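Quick start: read one record
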Amino acid sequence: MGFIEAIKSFYSRYVDFQTRSSRSEYWWVALYQIIVAVVLMIPLFGAIGGLAMSGDLESNPTAIYGVFFGMAGLPILLFFLVNIIPGIALGVRRIHDFDKSGWLYLIVLLGGFIPIASIFISIGWLIVNFLRGTVGPNRFGEDPLDPISDTFS
């Protein structure tokens, strides 16, 4: 799966919590989200820099909130809100690729709030996404890397 195909799949399967997703889909979407986040942060950092250079931060330290929640921070917030549900769905589909219940993704989501455990959970999630899923079909569907495996068998 290529970059464009992965992004199309990510958004077209917006609430698909039933099937499987490959490693390539996960990593292409991760790259896409990093690129968009960096591009959207450019105006935010420009606004913060302008605020710092003007000296307004010294007289009004809460002015930084106006930057984050104003026009410079709004695109990042909207991008996050649009991508949160498909991101969770993609994480669930990745776990389904290992023939495990998607409810395990709840550990990844909620584990981020536990101070020391979050480090180990994040490392574990990173390692899991480098591993290949179940070869062949499993209870969540066909193998995304070999979708026509049963055609000639």
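Residues 64 and 121 are 32 Å apart (CA to CA).
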